[in-house]
């Protein structure tokens, strides 16, 4: 047996495995904030990534433009048709907005406490996780620019994810397509008879769509109805577009409905993003419990 | 002075990997198939073959740790697997002659081992729920194909680069 302990390689391997398990356990801790060492590494590597990523993005953008040039004519025709509709739509929107404002004034609702209001911070993508197990992207704005954990991140097309963690000058965004069961978002479907609330619980690989649990089993949900955030989760504002309903199924117990949602944003072609800060302050559950206790 | 180029080069490859995944569309892939370019692993395999064994293991640990902290945020997986694979490649090259075909084969083998190792760990800590069959078709095979092409193209220039640094114990 002593020979067993004299084998240097074996001992190095065993120590390696112990360190591996310890480090994985450490990094899986719930609600972990980055340690200052990790923040330092994130920031300094982020600087290098920024230097290389921007020129690469210009080159990629150039090739993409070349591709677009091919079907410019057809696109132009289509857009011209849509533009006419757009003007009508805008007029209608202005009318409705004014009406809404008047009604609110009559009801004496103050505009400051609106759950729909938000401030946005512009950011640029500087890296993407190359091992494609988790869909993370890294953006060039961090704590110094006012970004906090769990903020919503959108592109012009719709919601793409939320801030997973932050360092001083960069932050990591977890995309909706990441298969993380803890990544839950409170959402609602606009149906013909009002809003139906539900919870987005994850991404279904088989359907290539987001999975949404709806507790009201008699809700009339049809295809192509629009899904947006409800703001009831406490961090996101209300009304950020997520996508459209692809199909609706009963779950295996027949008690709740599962709606599959095609996201409106493209998770692969992301260039510029907006980080959303809700104006209405977030209620901290831990604080509430403490107050109740005392 | 020449050894100064090595960390710069490896750092560049480290950043390049993310840029490729983000910006370069990989042809012949369907929507849910994923191909991962393991350039950093390729570089470490070449360092193990043509550079010194100590440097390969040290670079494996340092850049593996960097990879974990910056990209995957689960610390330990790559920091453990990169040096281990570097060591295994060196053991294999004791019996095998380090020509380009053997190196391509060893790269493919280490990519497959790395993929299975990460898949196993993620399955264990429930970060993924993909069944083995889907993993093989949607991830492993495209990844192996992509890395085969990358290895064929990049092994020769990277070999020249590493030999040019003159850090090897066995320059040929």
The largest β sheet of chain B comes out as:
none
CATH class of the largest domain in chain A: Mainly Beta
How many whole angstroms does the radius of gyration of chain A measure? 24 Å
Shape of chain A: globular
- How much is the radius of gyration of chain B in Å? 16 Å
What series of H and E elements makes up the topology of chain A? Answer: HHHHEEEEEEEEEEEEH
What's the story with the biggest beta sheet of chain A?
Answer: 6 strands, antiparallel, barrel
- Structural class assignment of chain B: mainly alpha
Tally of distinct domains of chain A: 2
Choose one word for the global shape of chain B.
globular
SS content category of chain A: alpha+beta
Give the full name of the CATH homologous superfamily of the largest domain in chain A. Rod shape-determining protein MreC, domain 1
Spatial order of strands in the largest sheet of chain A: 1-2-5-4-3-12
- End-to-end gap of chain A: 61 Å
Mean pLDDT of chain A: 84
Name the helicity range of chain B: over 70%
Write out key terms for the chains shown.
heterodimer, A: about 290 residues, alpha+beta, Thrombin, subunit H, 2 domains, six-stranded antiparallel beta barrel, six-stranded antiparallel barrel, about 30% strand, globular, B: about 170 residues, mainly alpha, 6 helices
Outline the structure in words.
The complex is a heterodimer of chains A (294) and B (172). Chain A has helices spanning 2-6, 8-27, 36-70, 72-107, 285-293, and strands spanning 118-128, 136-139, 152-154, 159-166, 171-175, 185-191, 194-204, 209-214, 226-229, 241-250, 257-263, 272-278. Chain A has a 6-stranded antiparallel barrel with strand order 1-2-5-4-3-12. Chain A is built from 5 helices and 12 strands. By secondary structure, chain B is mainly alpha-helical. Helices cover 75% and strands 0% of the residues of chain B. The longest helix of chain B is centred in the last third of the chain and has 34 residues, at 132-165. The mean pLDDT of chain B is 87. At the A-B interface, α2, α3, β1 and β2 of A face α1, α3, α4 and α5 of B. Chain A: InterPro entries: Cell/Rod_1, Cell/Rod_MreC_2, MreC, MreC_beta-barrel_core. Chain A: Keywords: Cell shape, Coiled coil. Chain A: It comes from Aeribacillus pallidus.
């Amino acid at each position: 047996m002593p020979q067993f302990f004299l084998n240097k390689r074996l001992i190095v391997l065993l120590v390696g495995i112990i360190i591996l398990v310890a480090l994985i356990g450490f990094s899986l801790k719930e609600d972990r904030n980055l340690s200052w060492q990790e923040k330092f590494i994130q920031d300094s590597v982020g600087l290098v990534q920024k230097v290389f990523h921007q020129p690469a993005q210009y080159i990629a953008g150039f090739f993409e433009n070349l591709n677009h040039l091919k079907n410019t004519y057809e696109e132009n025709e289509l857009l011209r048709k849509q533009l006419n509709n757009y003007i009508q739509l805008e007029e209608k929107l202005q009318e409705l907005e004014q009406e809404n404002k008047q009604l609110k004034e009559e009801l004496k609702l103050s505009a400051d406490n609106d759950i729909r209001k938000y401030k946005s911070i512009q950011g640029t993508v500087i890296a993407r996780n190359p091992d494609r197990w988790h869909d993370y992207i890294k953006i060039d704005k961090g704590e110094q620019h006012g970004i906090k954990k769990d903020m919503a991140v959108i592109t012009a097309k719709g919601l793409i994810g939320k801030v997973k963690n932050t360092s001083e000058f960069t932050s990591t965004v977890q995309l909706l397509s990441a298969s993380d069961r803890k990544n839950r978002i409170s959402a609602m479907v606009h149906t013909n008879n009002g809003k139906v609330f539900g919870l987005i619980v994850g991404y279904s690989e088989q359907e290539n769509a987001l999975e949404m649990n709806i507790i009201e089993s008699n809700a009339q949900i049809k295809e192509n109805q629009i899904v947006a955030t409800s703001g009831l989760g406490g961090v996101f504002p209300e009304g950020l577009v997520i996508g459209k309903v692809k199909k609706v199924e009963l779950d295996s117990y027949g008690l709740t409905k599962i709606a599959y949602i095609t996201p409106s944003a493209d998770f692969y072609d992301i260039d510029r993003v907006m980080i959303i800060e809700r104006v209405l302050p977030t209620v901290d559950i831990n604080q509430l419990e403490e107050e109740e206790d005392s | 002075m020449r050894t100064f180029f090595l960390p710069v080069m490896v750092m560049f490859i480290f950043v390049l990997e993310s840029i490729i995944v983000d910006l370069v569309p990989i042809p012949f892939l369907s929507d849910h198939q994923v191909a991962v370019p393991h350039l950093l692993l390729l570089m470490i395999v070449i360092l193990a073959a043509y550079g010194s064994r100590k440097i390969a293991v040290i670079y494996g640990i340092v850049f593996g740790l960097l990879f974990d902290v910056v990209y995957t945020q689960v610390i330990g997986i790559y920091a453990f697997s990169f040096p281990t694979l570097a060591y295994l490649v060196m053991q294999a090259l004791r019996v095998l002659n380090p020509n380009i075909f053997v190196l391509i084969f060893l790269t493919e083998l280490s990519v497959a081992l790395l993929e299975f190792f990460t898949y196993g760990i993620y399955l264990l800590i429930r970060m993924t729920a993909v069944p083995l069959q889907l993993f093989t078709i949607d991830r492993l095979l495209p990844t192996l194909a992509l890395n085969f092409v990358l290895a064929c193209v990049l092994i020769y220039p990277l070999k020249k680069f590493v030999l040019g640094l003159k850090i090897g114990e066995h320059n040929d």
